Amino acid sequence: EKAVNLKKDLAEMQEWMTQAEEEYLEKDFEYKSPEELENAVEEMKRAKEDVLQKEVRVKILRDNIKMLAAKVPSSGQDLATELNIVLENYQLLCNRIRGKCHTLEEVWSCWIELLHYLDLETAWLNNLEERVQMTENLPDKLDAVNDALESLESVLRHPADNRTQIRELGQTLIDGGILDDIISEKLEAFNAHYEELSHLAVSRQIALEQQLQTMRETDHMLQVLQENLVELDRQLTSYLTDRVDAFQMPQEAQ
C-alpha cells in the first residue's frame, strides 16, 4: 500500500511539473506595453517561488522511496527508477524557470534604464533649447554676445554617451520584439527633436561667432580711428600753437 501511495505521489508530482511547464514556459508572450512586461516579470517571480517550494515535497518523496527500497527492494527498485526521472525533470524545470525569470528581469531592467537615459537627454535638450532662446534679441554689446556664445557652447559640449546607450538599449529591446512599437515611437520622437534642436543650436552658434568677429573687427577699426584722431588733433593743435599757415601744411592737415 505504501508503494502504491508513493507511486501515486510521483505521478501527481510529474503531472504538476507538466502543467507548470505548459503554463510558464510554453506560452507565447507578447510584451506590447510596459504593464504587460511588468506583469510577466511578477508572474515569473511567483512561478520561481512556487517551483522552489516543491523542493521540500521532492525531498520527502526521495527519502520515503529510499526507506521503502531498503525494506522492500523489489518494490523500491521500480519506484527509484521513476523517482530519478521525476528528479531530473524537476531540476530541469527549476533551471528553465530560473533562466526565464532572470531574462525577464534583465529585460525589465533594460526598459527602466532606457527610460532613465531618455529622461536625462530630454532634460539636456530642454536646457539647450533655453540657451538657444537666450541668444535671441541680444543687446548690441560685445560682452553680451560673447557670454551668450560661451553659454551655448558649454551646453553643446554635452557628451554623446547617453545617446549611445539609448540607441543600444532601444535596439536590443526592439530586436527581441519587446515593447517595439512604444520604443520605436519614443526613439523617433527623441531623435527628431534632437536633430532639429542641435541643428538650430549649431546654426545659432555659427551666427554668434560671426557676429562676435564682426563686432571685434568694428571695435578694432574704431580704436584705430580714435588713435588716428587723437594724433591728428595733437598735430593740428601743434600747428595752431606754432601759427603755421594752412597752405604750408600737408594736404591731409589742410
UniProtKB/TrEMBL annotation:
What is this protein identified as?
Utrophin
- Entry annotated with the keyword Coiled coil: yes
Query: What Gene3D superfamilies has UniProt attached to this entry?
Result: 1.20.58.60
What UniProt keywords are attached to this protein's entry? Coiled coil
Q: Which residues form a coiled coil?
A: 3-64, 208-242
Q: Does the keyword Transport apply?
A: no
Record-linked InterPro entries: Spectrin/alpha-actinin (IPR018159), Spectrin_repeat (IPR002017)
